[in-house]
Amino acid sequence: MLLGFSGLMAFVVAFVPTVPDGRCGPNAYSQTPAEIAAAVRNNIWSLVVVAALAAGVTAWLKRGTVTRDSSERPTVRSVVVTVVCGAILLGELVLFLALRDRFIALSHDIAAGTMVAGVIAVMVLSALRAEDRHRGAGAGTVYKRIYIAIAVALAAALGTTVLAALTVHGFDHLVLIAEVIVIVLFATYWGVQTKELWDLRAADGLEARPTQGVVE
């Protein structure tokens, strides 16, 4: 859920530009406000249509495959996450439909902030479940600490960057530095998680082999 939400916000970040920077003067790549508004309108409508189709196809594919069990109810955490993500998406959609100028002015920053918050939340939730995945083994504690460290590093690095942009005169590379930080630390998280999943697969394979041998 959170990764899907962060991915959707990443599309909004890509489709809605930041505030135009006119310091370089007019050039072949300059766009008027009207051209920017037209591009944003086209991009976001395309995203809305594709997201709606993807949601419909996903629901159709899952139709009849989910076994309903009264004992399996959504946790409070999953309900809260779903409500928060849904509220943000609904707010973005309302801005786009009713207040197009405000959407163009604010949506990039809102989407970028919530995307990063979603990524950090994914790291923290993965850390909280690490020991369960490893059934209490020492490796679960190690991965838990690594995921928490990456999440804290991401939050701290972005916070420091924003603080520098607000307080240091002449600091005008906030977006570029923030994007590099997110890419590097998320890639680190992805690499660590890949290693963890390999370890889990290897452990499951070793546990399964004696049983398979007895059956054969």
From TrEMBL:
Entry's transmembrane regions: 44-62, 74-97, 103-125, 146-168, 174-192
Keywords, comma-separated and alphabetical: Membrane, Transmembrane, Transmembrane helix
Protein origin, superkingdom: Bacteria
Protein name, UniProt field: DUF998 domain-containing protein
Organism (species): Terrabacter carboxydivorans
